Amino acid sequence: MLVTSPANVRYLSGFTGSNGWLLVGGDRTVLVTDPRYEIQAHTQVDCDVWVTRSKLVGTLAKLVRKWGWRRIGFETAHLRHEAYAGLSETAQSGVEWVPLKGWVERLRACKSQWEIERVRQAAATAAQAFDAIVPLLKPGLTEKEVATELDYRLRRLGADRAAFETIVATGPNSALPHAQPTDRQLQAGEPVLLDFGAQRHCYASDMTRTVHLGAAPASFRRLYAAVLEAQQAALEAVRAGVTSADVDEAARAVLSRHKLESLFVHATGHGVGIEVHELPRLGKGERARLREGMVVTIEPGIYVEGYCGIRIEDTVLVTQQGCEVLTQAPKNLLEL
Amino acid sequence: MLVTSPANVRYLSGFTGSNGWLLVGGDRTVLVTDPRYEIQAHTQVDCDVWVTRSKLVGTLAKLVRKWGWRRIGFETAHLRHEAYAGLSETAQSGVEWVPLKGWVERLRACKSQWEIERVRQAAATAAQAFDAIVPLLKPGLTEKEVATELDYRLRRLGADRAAFETIVATGPNSALPHAQPTDRQLQAGEPVLLDFGAQRHCYASDMTRTVHLGAAPASFRRLYAAVLEAQQAALEAVRAGVTSADVDEAARAVLSRHKLESLFVHATGHGVGIEVHELPRLGKGERARLREGMVVTIEPGIYVEGYCGIRIEDTVLVTQQGCEVLTQAPKNLLEL
Same structural domain for residues B63 and B114? Predict the structure, then answer.
């Protein structure tokens, strides 16, 4: 199999450079890269390393012809058409290229102890950054300024970078699940939604907290309590053996009881690891069963257009008995 | 033509979402995206917007069949095999898909006044961040800490984010052209190479400065003076009408005169705009001529393995008479 997705190459080989393809066979495995990464590749990987000054695709084609390989899988969701066209030329020599999807991604869903330790660190770093940013949340700061300060703290606390573009959304902006920070100022009497994570040693974490500037009105408190209850119910539903849909349904049932289900417009969670979004997906109709060692987010939310959004999200480790919350930070409603 | 590269979609339509494809025809143009970006798309683009809950490729295939399009270009260097395979199914209806490369990228090489203003701001922001970081460069800080502080200042000064992963490389680490910041501490008697840029309103800048902690030995000063002379020569060679190779050769000739050419292991520069690396490439054998409105980096460097690297880089605007340096920051050797 030819592996071209950087996250998958990293997972299988340990190589972290930006330009490296992995050819994995029954009897031999080789990483093909360019001279910029020669030293790094030899340090990071156990398999053979092939360094080329030309395009990786040409070198790959030569290798498979030389080795007489006949049938090779490739990652259809990652390989660009241009590279595919280059590989296809080897069909004249009788090589068959077979599109594959999700093969390595499925391996990545269950984490090893080594990986769990890395996600644990990334999660702890994010939780610490939340604790550090809360005292700064005051009217007058803009969403962008808060995002800047939060990312700065993530890195000061040991993150290599923010795991994704940090979301800081105030008031009505928080009703957009994928809001980007704007120049809008924090205002008393409004919620602030913070969705962020740390990337550390190639592993990510992902968490969300929604706080309120000043005392929250009763209506907001009720909504917040419902989302928190839904998140707790989903957390309690997590354990090895249940389906992803079961966990999603646990959150949805609570919001349904509060007549808020129509405001919950996304899935309950997703896997986290080398990438921020990976397998499994915790949504309606997902029949795959959770397994010990999976790391997933639990993040129900409700979105009221023009008023506010509330989302509470943790990164958790799936265990035999239940789950361990890795992003340990307060979830009671903070009125700042 | 089907445009799927996010940077190209952004350039042609103004759409900045993460999931949008543009179908550009003689008589009609449509942006296809998903419901998350419906409001944003209508705000940002002038053309028709088609919103789909399913995969973009299926909607695209339906549209071209409905419109009776027969021959459609696509971006071979960007489109994934999976999407290509989906589009290919329309071949049964007589649609021919033609691989194209660099069509929009070549349009992007010459910037409009509107774009130049954006790059100018991104360049000014980076230059200001350099001025702000210099007083902090003291022995004991790690490369990662300096990168964290520099990125923080970029954003405080108005950048939406660092334009790329900031390089801070000390002593022998600076000899690696693509060094990543490590936990190595800044030390008196060693150089510090800083390569960074601001992204602001979707446009990037790119600059490098090499400073020395403490008084530099004569050998280092000689090397630094040679690189600075090479950079000045290249800057003086820039103007509309010369070839990219001419500019590269101007830098290379100076280093050759100092018997340092073998230490200059990369090209002299590249275009900067929506992406940090775009057309043109300023290297050996590049016969394309510079044109007014191009924005390019000029960045000769020399790398002595185990000792140090020195690179001096500016982002400049190509004009009829010469060039305008947009990253205005000191280039004399700073001994801190």
Answer: no
Count structural domains, chain B: 2
Cβ atoms of residues A172 and A95 within 8 Å: no
For residue A97, tell me if it sits in a domain.
yes
Tens of pLDDT, residue by residue over A250-279, are 999 999 999 999 999 999 999 999 999 999
Same domain, A93 and A142: no
Question: Does the bond joining A139 to the residue before it have cis omega, within 30 degrees of 0?
Answer: no
In this structure, the answer to whether residues A296 and A314 fall within a common structural domain is yes
Classify residue B332: in a domain, yes or no.
no
Residues of B with a Cβ under 8 Å from any A Cβ are 36, 74, 76-82, 84-85, 99, 101, 144, 148, 151-152, 155-156, 160-161, 165, 177-178
For B118-134, what is the mean pLDDT?
Answer: 98
A126 with A269, same domain: the answer is yes
Chain B residues touching A146 at Cβ < 8 A = none
Residue B147 covered by a domain: yes
The Cα–Cα gap between B38 and B275 comes to 25
Amino acid at A192: V
Measured CA to CA, the distance from residue B257 to residue B225 in angstroms comes to 13
Beta carbons of B84 and A81 less than 8 Å apart? yes
Last residue of a domain, one of A108, A135, A150: A108
**Domain residue limits at B190:** 110-325
Nearest to B77 among A74, A82, A160 (CB): A82
CATH code at position B168:
3.90.230.10
Contacts 24+ apart (CB under 8 A), A118-121: A118/A200, A118/A201, A118/A202, A118/A203, A119/A203, A119/A204, A119/A205, A119/A272, A119/A273, A119/A295, A119/A315, A119/A317, A119/A326, A120/A317, A120/A326, A121/A158, A121/A200, A121/A201, A121/A203
Burial (Cβ within 10 Å: 0-12, 13-18, ≥19) of residue A190? buried
- Chain B residues inside the 8 Å CB shell of A144: 155, 160
Q: For residues B19 and B8, what is the distance between their CA atoms, to the nearest angstrom?
A: 13
**Is residue A47 located within the same domain as residue A148?**
no
- Helix, strand, coil abundance in chain A, percent, nearest 5: 40, 25, 35
Contact B333, B212 (CB under 8 A): yes
Chain A residue with minimum CA distance to B175: A36
Looking at the fold, whether A101 and A192 belong to one and the same domain comes out as no
Q: Does A74 sit within 8 Å of B36, measured CB to CB?
A: no
**Where is the domain boundary, A85, A108, A131?**
A108
3-state SS, A222-276, equals HHHHHHHHHHHHHHHHCCCCCEHHHHHHHHHHHHHHCCCHHHCCCCCEEECCCCC
Give the tens place of pLDDT for each residue, A184-193. 999 999 999 9
Which chain A residue is nearest to residue B150, measuring alpha carbons?
A: A152
B219 and B166, same domain (yes or no): yes
Q: Supply A11's token pair.
A: 């997972």
Determine the distance in angstroms separating the CA of A240 from the nearest CA of chain B, rounded to an integer. Answer: 31
B336 is a domain residue: no
CA gyration radius, chain A = 23
Instruction: Note whether B77 contacts A80, CB cutoff 8 Å.
Output: yes
What Å distances lie between residue B273 and B75, B108, B119, B204, B205, CA to CA? Answer: 19, 8, 7, 5, 7
pTM: 0.95
Q: How far apart are CA A108 and CA A21, in angstroms?
A: 18
Do residues B20 and B144 share a domain? no
What CATH number has the domain bearing residue A82? 3.40.350.10
Please report the pLDDT score of residue A92 as a whole number.
83
Q: What is the pLDDT of residues A127-137, one digit of tens each?
A: 999 999 999 99
Q: Measure the CA–CA gap between B163 and A183, rounded to whole angstroms.
A: 20
